[in-house]
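Fig. S4 source data, part A: sequence.
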Amino acid sequence: MRNSKAQTSGIEQRRPAFQRPSNQLPDPDSNSRTRAKRPRESASDRAARARLILERMAIHYPDSRCSLDHESPFQLLIATILSAQCTDARVNIVTRELFAKGGTAEDLARLPQEEVSRIIHSTGFWRNKTKAILGAAKRLVSEFGGVVPTSMEQLLTLPGVARKTANVVLGVGFRKAVGVVVDTHVSRITGLLGLTKAATPEKIETDLMRLFPPDHWIVSSHRFIDHGRAVCIARRPRCAECFLSDLCRAAPPHLPAPDSSGS
């Protein structure tokens, strides 16, 4: 998976100030050619549109789930840290060996730094990630008895953990809806849909939490990620095939009515 307190390792803060991809379609509200066709909407209209988006996403992606392989909240924590600037598929390859040797906080904390670096090297930023996951494992052992805490405040004290990672662990590992995971897919797609105009993950999350009911906070991120991989692809969005095109503020005008049935 692809951020609000700065951590020592800076895994989630490696990028400069958050920017939307340059190839993202423009905000239609600032485009004079489309403004007449898509007038600014009220907060209530946006909320109603958000509900329709969530309904259709549920129809088309009923089985969306976290794609990081894990057998415990601890393994999910480590996998999520490793997923920064790396594909989930690559992380899953790496964690097979890593978790075979360090599948618990105690076991990982005992591994030599050189061994950990070797195993995770292909995920990128391996020096910072080695420091982060070993630091997290050692702090879990020393401060939490080797058990991953279940509060946002405590998770944010772990090296390599900022709000996105904490939301993943709480939502997926403990089924606690504390917030919305905002990765690159979520930030890009919710911006295109016109659900937020915010420029930082923290503000995007705040906007989405206001629009989405809490029972959608966890699964909605997985569905946006799946949609970003299958349809709303960053470099070549398939707007003509998108079941959300009539609800999207950035979709080209005059597209045929989408099939929202999921069939």
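Fig. S4 source data, part B ends here. Residues 2-9, 13-36 have pLDDT under 50 and may be disordered.
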